[in-house]
Amino acid sequence: MAGDVFISYSQSDRACAHELVAQLEGQGIQCWIAPRDIAPSADWASEIMDALSASRVMVLVFSASSNHSPQVRREVERAVHKQLSILPFRIEDVLPSKSLEFFLSTQHWMDAFPPPRDAHYARLCSHLKAQLNSGPGQASIPVSSRPTAQPFDPAQLQHIERQLAGYIGPFAKHLVKEAASRAAGVDDLIGRLCRELDSDSERREFTERCRVS
After folding, report:
1. 29 and 105: one domain?
2. Nearest-10 crossing angle of helices 171-180, 44-54
3. pLDDT digits (tens, 9 = 90+) for 173-203
4. Which of 133, 156, 172 is at the close of a domain?
5. pLDDT, tens digit, for every residue of 50-92?
6. How many distinct structural domains can be found in the chain?
7. Among candidates 192, 202, 210, which has minimal Cα distance to 168?
8. For residues 14 and 65, is the Cβ–Cβ distance under 8 A?
9. 133, 168, 187 - which closes a domain
10. Does the predicted TM-score (pTM) go above 0.85?
């Protein structure tokens, strides 16, 4: 089920995320949230990518837990690449890590602490209604300004995908496919995928493995 609002959250904040969805949907705002909206037999990563493509806004339930979640970071990065409007809903008084700060530094933040959160939920509902009724958030990038993607050898892409999957699992398939559609060459492709990894040592190791066929 597609939704106007994609909810990104860490499992530690599951109760808050579902409470938030109940409040938003009670006001007629259609949401997409995992795992509720993922079919039992569906590919998890593919469903997330499709949901991000169909959504107009991402609400990030931001806490200390989501701040250090690799899955949340990947969802935020995909939302940025898809030019999706992101609204961090901060439920704890923490600052974003460097990896998230890069993507969220220009976003509008909404603080939702201290509890109770009812008034914060109501404020978020009002903000989202106004935003969704105002039309698309960000303009698309003109085709002429996009980098020219270079065709890749399928075997080479499979090799790179296998290397990345060793670090982040099945989500690698979709990340490689998307990065390849934008990359201007192998070096550019590997550089884009290195952003998915959390440490310099992993990035160096991944780069070396990609270059060994």
Report:
1. yes
2. 50
3. 878 888 888 788 888 888 888 887 878 888 8
4. 133
5. 999 999 999 999 999 999 998 999 999 889 888 899 999 999 9
6. 2
7. 202
8. no
9. 133
10. no
